[in-house]
Amino acid sequence: MAFQGSTDNQQTSFPELVGRNAQEAALYITAQGLTPVFVRPDQPVTLDYRTDRVRIVTDPSGNHVIQAPTVG
């Protein structure tokens, strides 16, 4: 697994989830002790940075991950 910008050896990017089912990705993120948050392409998001949140960008139908989820 790739570690990008990690702190305390926590993975901050999850490129291995691109193309996977969104619900499976959420379970994977939860198993890492992080909170998944689903967003659609071009959906506005808050600019605050949280080390416990992972945004999962899905296709318009909300079924598949289309971008590497990242902590933030």
Automatic annotation (TrEMBL):
The keyword Cytoplasm does not apply. The keyword Lipid biosynthesis does not apply. InterPro entries: Prot_inh_pot1 (IPR000864), Prot_inh_pot1_sf (IPR036354). Keywords: Protease inhibitor, Serine protease inhibitor. One of its GO terms (biological process) is response to wounding. GO terms for molecular function: serine-type endopeptidase inhibitor activity. SUPFAM superfamilies: CI-2 family of serine protease inhibitors. Belongs to the protease inhibitor I13 (potato type I serine protease inhibitor) family. This is Uncharacterized protein. The lineage of its organism: Eukaryota, Metazoa, Spiralia, Gnathifera, Rotifera.
